[in-house]
Amino acid sequence: MDSVVLLGHGSGGSMMKRIIDEVFFEAYGGEELLQGDDAAILPAPANGERLAFSTDSFVVTPHFFPGGDIGKLAVCGTVNDVATSGAKPLYLSCGFILEEGFPIESLQRICASMALAAKEAGVRIVTGDTKVVNRGSGDGVFINTSGIGILEQGKSLSGAHCKAGDKVLVSGTLGDHGITIMSCRESLAFEADLQSDAAPLNHLIADVLKAAPSVRCFRDPTRGGLASTLNELAAQSQVDITIEEEAVPVKQAVLGACEMLGFDVYQVANEGKVVCVVAPEEAQAALAAMKKNCYGTDGAIIGEITQAQEQRGPKVFLKTTFGSTRILDMLVGEQLPRIC
Amino acid sequence: MDSVVLLGHGSGGSMMKRIIDEVFFEAYGGEELLQGDDAAILPAPANGERLAFSTDSFVVTPHFFPGGDIGKLAVCGTVNDVATSGAKPLYLSCGFILEEGFPIESLQRICASMALAAKEAGVRIVTGDTKVVNRGSGDGVFINTSGIGILEQGKSLSGAHCKAGDKVLVSGTLGDHGITIMSCRESLAFEADLQSDAAPLNHLIADVLKAAPSVRCFRDPTRGGLASTLNELAAQSQVDITIEEEAVPVKQAVLGACEMLGFDVYQVANEGKVVCVVAPEEAQAALAAMKKNCYGTDGAIIGEITQAQEQRGPKVFLKTTFGSTRILDMLVGEQLPRIC
């Protein structure tokens, strides 16, 4: 095998066949991928079920970081986007944009990591594509994954379904991913054990949904953090949301880093957390199910939905530990580019 | 609206919301996309039908060229990959990787072009993603599209189904796309009217399939050209393929350019052509259906499948106009990088 990516690996010819066989098939070649046709043929869901379809591109830098890498993110990110709809993710596509000169050994590590994450999530990579751009026109590796899931009959979750009185849950500590990436980039060491929370959350989401069937919606607070996610939900449902600062789980190391660097932890990205809005009578059941899953042990009820006031648009409020209330705004501009 | 892409447009915050609303929704916002959840929810196919799923990333340079642009390619490429399986393409995802500083006006032109191509193909862009990389880490715009189609019960096309005696058809002239891109890059003007053949071929494919139900397979000869496609089919089916040079449609301008530049027209990329292998008794019906479609008027029967000899692996042969026979090899290395 060649030691670095060459333009010919994207040619459509025999060099491309080689990188596909020796790197991609080696890592995650299943029945559909090995068939060698241009589209994967998949069984359709049963009567009354529907499809969930989502896409995400990944451009994170650095490519490898404590707790994960761009490959793990690429699988988990799309798995989570499909799962938040309430669907069971089953199939992924994977498109690579490689830069000439990127080490094949790094690509192999990334693909092995994708295979591992896909196995944990219970999804299969069934179709793919490889492009190579010339040196200086990319940044090592970009990955797009798209995912298909199956949604049970009658299930309908949406950010537009939140109602006054509903409780807001989050599955664990905020900001781990964003602060980890930032410390890698700046070579800051805030704490030895801080690492990205990148994780496939489909099993956790399924557990919560089983325990609390009237969940209104799930949403993963990735780019833009919890603040942007809550503002999206408030706008979709035309409601206010109030969060209790002391209920929100945040690691001491992350809080310290945010204070030092002037970041708002509510706007820092997460890659293994989910926000859940649920009817009040099922909030405890949802929390218990969440806490039983290995990715939800720090889960908490952090706030609730209230009616929006007619005079102004929907707002998100934070009740601080000092007893004051401030508006939690959507991220404006860019805090940490290329976080995922 | 801002005049160029900024890092904040990929932030997950309010600037991202703005580019989504003002550029993407403006061009192709439909019901699912406007819903604003992380995954599009789609009706499942009827009993017995299956899904076809394919993905492609587009990194072509220049972004605009005679006959198309990166947006048109991104829609047509994935539509065609899904359609070659015999499926009816219905839904596309679209992931943008934008470089900081890319003109918003160019992005708008690209999105309008995607909307037009999607309309012609009869598919809808139902889910999307936007990432922005810093200046110098990308090349203006890269696009990934993934596509879902529905495959009728009992229909099974594959490059592995070719049999000795089958006829090989191509839907029109070879090399138009590759030579157009190359002339743009080198500012060569071979002929005023030479342009990319980029086109959605799903309607043509459906027409041929209706007229000739025992089509073995379709394949679009993109990167690597006709030579690579035929070598793939020969390997998948373990057969030989013989092509008659004088039967292969090629424009005079393309032939001249290839001769001048030392390119093999059989290895030059096409973006609006399809190869079809069909049982001999249905070859004429397939050809007639092809020629009736506006993208198949230059269609031709160009060769046939023969048994591979046991001693050596499957081969593709070209009978030249001089009466000699040469082996038509898969593209090795790279002829024209970033052709799509």
Concise account of the structure shown:
The structure is a homodimer. Chain A is an alpha+beta fold.
Our estimate of the beta-strand percent of chain A is 15-25%
Based on CA atoms alone, the radius of gyration of chain A comes out at 21 Å
Please give the order of strands in the largest beta sheet of chain A: 9-11-8-12-10-13-14
Shape of chain A: globular
Report on the biggest sheet of chain A: 7 strands, mixed
- Spatial separation of the terminal alpha carbons of chain A: 29 Å
Number of β-strand runs of chain A:
14
Please count the helical segments of chain A: 9
User: SSE order of chain A, as H and E?
Assistant: HHEEEEHEHEEEHHEHEHEHEEE
State the oligomer. homodimer
Q: What structural class do helix, strand and pairing data of chain A support?
A: alpha+beta
- pLDDT below 50 for ≥5 consecutive residues: which ranges of chain A? none
Q: Which protein chains make the most extensive interface, counting residues with beta carbons within 8 Å of the other chain's beta carbons?
A: A-B, 94 and 93 residues
Query: Can you give the mean pLDDT of chain A?
Result: 94
